[in-house]
């Protein structure tokens, strides 16, 4: 995760400093891009905000949609993007498909009015267990626990872990250390460790999910919106690569089936939770095909090229997040140049 951010940041910095991305013309942007968003909410002045990378402001979302048009992209639904993936029309304008992961309420409260003003279709990937209030937003729990505590005390792999967390700088360092440690473990181990920390900080995880995530009534209304498509994000949002075959297939199939039952419409599109190469790979791409999903998206960075037509369940995305909320960086991302830098010139990253 950190290496990817560092390399993309380096690519962005090079583009901003030299303007090299403008020299590439349309050669590196391919057929278009699928954009990843998570949360949309007003800016807050917070020095300790480790999950801010998952947030953009409504104002920046408005600028993103404006810059897409200015750069010659046509904003289309994911169904239309899937259709264009198999077309051989090099003269058509590049497309942009907008996707929002996890089903956060602020996407509807703060993001939907912006999308409506631009008449921009979008897809929300939902894990039904969040709507049921039975799955945890562990990364939010971790942030809130570190925010409340002055010191982090835990037994980790048989050793006592003690981290100071009084100042914002100490909290940032503690969060980063714990995040790296826990992401190396399995799903259940991760949740157990964070639960201990959360309980010590006096946090009710259900209240967090209830506050931040859409419920079924809200999802039913969103699914009926003419601009919206609802996609599946598994049932409980695990790292699929860590699950046995039967469990991974059940997560993928049950998440889709529950959405179709509750919302009364087909669910053709899928997003792998976390979506990096360690969380979803060729095995999971095969499962998505076996389950009949028309598309499945990763968080591997990249643009969409004609070669992706043969791999519609291993699609890359362009992450629009709180790290780079400025027009110059976004224009550089749209050029495809930073991803060419990150992917070492490869157009496909499916291994």
Descriptive labels:
eight-stranded parallel beta sheet, single chain, 15 helices, globular, 351 residues, two-stranded parallel sheet, alpha/beta
Distinct helical segment count: 15
Q: Give the overall form.
A: globular
- Mean pLDDT, nearest integer? 90
Secondary-structure-derived class = alpha/beta
Sheet of most strands = 8 strands, parallel
Total beta strand runs: 12
Which regions have little confidence, pLDDT < 50, spanning 5+ residues? none
**SSE run:** HHEEEHEHEHEHHEEHHHHEHEHEEHH
Helix percent reads: 40-55%
Proportion of strand residues:
15-25%
Global Rg:
20 Å
Distance between the first and last residues' Cα: 17 Å
Characterise the protein shown here.
The protein is an alpha/beta fold and 351 residues long. Helix content is 46%, strand content 16%. It is built from 15 helices and twelve strands. Strands 1, 4, 5, 6, 9, 10, 11 and 12 form an eight-stranded parallel β-sheet that branches. Helix 4 (78-85) links the parallel strand 4 and strand 5. It is globular. The chain starts with a helix and ends in a 9-residue tail after the last helix. The model has no long low-confidence stretch (mean pLDDT 90).
